[in-house]
Amino acid sequence: AAITMYAAGSIVLDAFSGVGGQSVSLAVAGLTVFACDINQTNVDHTMHNARVHGVAERLRMVCGDYFARIAGLAAKWMPIGRKFGAIHVDMPWGKAYEEETYPLHRMGDGTLSAYDVLEAAAPLSDSFVFKCPRNVAISDAVKLAYHVQSIKGGASTHNVAMPLVEVFVNGDKTVMAVIYIGDIAAKRLEDIAPPARVVDLTHKRWTIEQCAKSMLSRGKRVGCASVTFAPFA
């Protein structure tokens, strides 16, 4: 919904698209979608779903390695200044999900880094939507935003545009989270009423789930946190 609201009328990229649930939903909402997945069966399912929903003409689906595909797009688009309205990334989580704090640098089979994935895509958009497990450290969400902005040349350790973390809760259980980075985060924050106070989480290695539980226990559904971190620690 956020992508369709803030990137309406644009072309968006759905990376690691799986069977295409997000890709087809975005196309149904009227967006033009580029999608990429390394599994041919997933690609076939995605195109079937797109045809069933009547949006195959708005979906370009390719099978292949993400980094190779992104490099090819960058080579074509960067010289002419072309960009995606937003990039949606839903990487495989892998066995690291079982750890107490989820490592963004060891996703999938343990060799995929969220930092590398967004670094490769950074020149191709100013808005990023990153789906992640509930047990990602809140400070790592800030680090990921810092990394993207540093690649784009707009960040220092004292000037990081705040990412927006949206938490999906079922009852009292946190299911997953989405980290919004860049223009889409700024636009969404403008539309959210400011919280009553800012919580300093600098000295708390809290996960996103722990932050959500703390907020819900105080009857809050929107909160603001400040985090100081060493970006290359």
Automatic annotation (TrEMBL):
Pfam families: Methyltransf_15. GO terms for cellular component: nucleus. It catalyses: a 5'-end (N(7)-methyl 5'-triphosphoguanosine)-ribonucleoside in snoRNA + S-adenosyl-L-methionine = a 5'-end (N(2),N(7)-dimethyl 5'-triphosphoguanosine)-ribonucleoside in snoRNA + S-adenosyl-L-homocysteine + H(+); a 5'-end (N(2),N(7)-dimethyl 5'-triphosphoguanosine)-ribonucleoside in snoRNA + S-adenosyl-L-methionine = a 5'-end (N(2),N(2),N(7)-trimethyl 5'-triphosphoguanosine)-ribonucleoside in snoRNA + S-adenosyl-L-homocysteine + H(+); a 5'-end (N(2),N(7)-dimethyl 5'-triphosphoguanosine)-ribonucleoside in snRNA + S-adenosyl-L-methionine = a 5'-end (N(2),N(2),N(7)-trimethyl 5'-triphosphoguanosine)-ribonucleoside in snRNA + S-adenosyl-L-homocysteine + H(+); a 5'-end (N(7)-methyl 5'-triphosphoguanosine)-ribonucleoside in snRNA + S-adenosyl-L-methionine = a 5'-end (N(2),N(7)-dimethyl 5'-triphosphoguanosine)-ribonucleoside in snRNA + S-adenosyl-L-homocysteine + H(+). GO terms for molecular function: RNA cap trimethylguanosine synthase activity. PANTHER family: S-ADENOSYLMETHIONINE-DEPENDENT METHYLTRANSFERASE RELATED, TRIMETHYLGUANOSINE SYNTHASE. Belongs to the methyltransferase superfamily. Trimethylguanosine synthase family. This is Trimethylguanosine synthase. It comes from Vitrella brassicaformis (strain CCMP3155).
